[in-house]
Amino acid sequence: MAALGARRLLRQGWRWFSQAEPAGLSAPPSPLYPPVVASMTAKSKAAKQRRLERFKERVHAAATVEEKLRLYGKLQRPKYVLYPQTFALNADRWYRSFTNTAFVPGLPPIAAFPKAPGAAPEACRAPEAGAEAPDAAKTPEAAAGAAQYLDMGELRSLTCDALLQESFYQNKKQPFLYREQDHTPGPFLTQLVSTLASFLSGRNPLLAASSFDLKPKVNYYWQHGEEVVVHGHRKGRVDPVRFQIDDNPHVQIRVPKQLPEVVPLESDLGDVPVINHKPSKLPLFKRQYENKVFIGSKVADPCCYGHTQFHLIPDKLKRERLIKKGLEDQIEVVYRSNGIASLFAWTAAQAMYQGFWSEADVTRPFVSQAVVTDGRYFSFFCYQLNTLALTAETIKNNPRKNICWGTESKPLYDVLEAGNVKGFNDEVLLHLVHFLLNRPKEL
Amino acid sequence: YPLFQKGGPQLRIFRPNFFMLVVRPGVPQPEDTVQFRVSMEMTKLDIRNYLERIYNVPVAAVRTRIQYGANNKRNHKNQREKKPDYKVAYVQLGQGQTFQFPNLFPEKEQDTETPSFDDFRNKYVEKEKQKQEGDPRRGGVPDWFGL
Fold first, then answer.
1. Which residue among A317, A436, B23, B78 is least crowded, i.e. fewest CB within 10 A of its CB?
2. How far apart are CA A388 and CA A402, in angstroms?
């Protein structure tokens, strides 16, 4: 044993009492043993981290966006299903906390009224728009650059035509029980949007190249926060909280170019509510099915950016029903939760179609618009997606928030009498038209 | 009892067993949610009317579920003993009201002047110990030997 010990002491390269090596020696020899890393299959936190890292590397290294989406939504587990049109009380506050969104009442100045460097006369009773000169009521002058001449009379007549056609001129039978929204306001909305879009496509070349979807599907799957599994064979483990939105807007417009950003990426315009209760107290229920991410068309479609969505409030959440139940303050909540949830799902799905995901956060903001209506009252929403990083690890050092601008619901008209539309509101129509005219600055 | 639907006969029930017991929630609930144990025959409409008409509490939403009582315990005759089922109602209050279940057993501050039971017991234990010890003048030496 002593001989072995002595031989070990005299082994090559074993220097106990040697001097320090002179500087500038050759490069250290390549390591003899592979790096010491955690196991891949053990039941330990380090092994779990290693598996997560391997999954993230696989997604980062995926060649195509379809492959990325397939790997992202491959593992199916029970998830909370969010409904944008929900009867839950104060749902918009919960949805804002799930999607890390700050809500700003009112519309941003860009979407509300497009900037007009010269005098932008409009042949309508000129509203209180911006700092237009009092001569806005005159006929179009030869302003510097393109004169934006909006024929309000023509637009108003188009709208009234659509309204009266659906409700008065066309002979329809009585609507079936609880199907009033599909009977009149639904067809009116599609007719209105299609006629306005085709009328304004001459003005806005983006609309001419857009894709007009009827009853499309919009899906998005994401993870936000962590919880402990309560019962089952996985009891006691810490799991991310998964959400899924499956939305059916009434009509949507998709465009090949992205809308310009409203505010810079890192801006802070409000607070995100923090809710410490479990999402199931909303009430929200869990289900397990396909983790789908979809904007309304597949990845290869050239119109991969969103422009405007139009949502119709269903019969269950109509104004009259909520008033009868005594929930007047929830009327606006319905519109807001619909706007926030649908727009978040749409913009986030658009971002995923461009290859971003929670580990690869967006480098430019994604902007979309939505109009939520029940046939008579209209609310306008504009959403800017600044961050996709909502998981428990990525949200820790993430200062960015998503921002949603929204208005209260305003009526388009007061009363529909036989052959006449009483109390038409031009402001709502103006908002709608400006939404449709929104386009990137290059066009 | 059958629920009333339009066109059906209006049945009346006299002296129904409708009770509502407010309980502390086992898991934390949002601020506007109150948890009740109610009679098994009560429906959501009954709960809403009960609270609104009798207690003038504005109710925004009611959700109910039935909790199954377990049937696994056995008595001395090896017969299964059933714990009774009960219905739980989660009521969300309207008009922005909130409710927090009160703490029914708050910690009482100890009064140093009035002697409590613990002090009495400590004194008794000290007296007993002193009886056990022997004469202090012997310096701890036991007295079973010597004079």
1. B78
2. 9
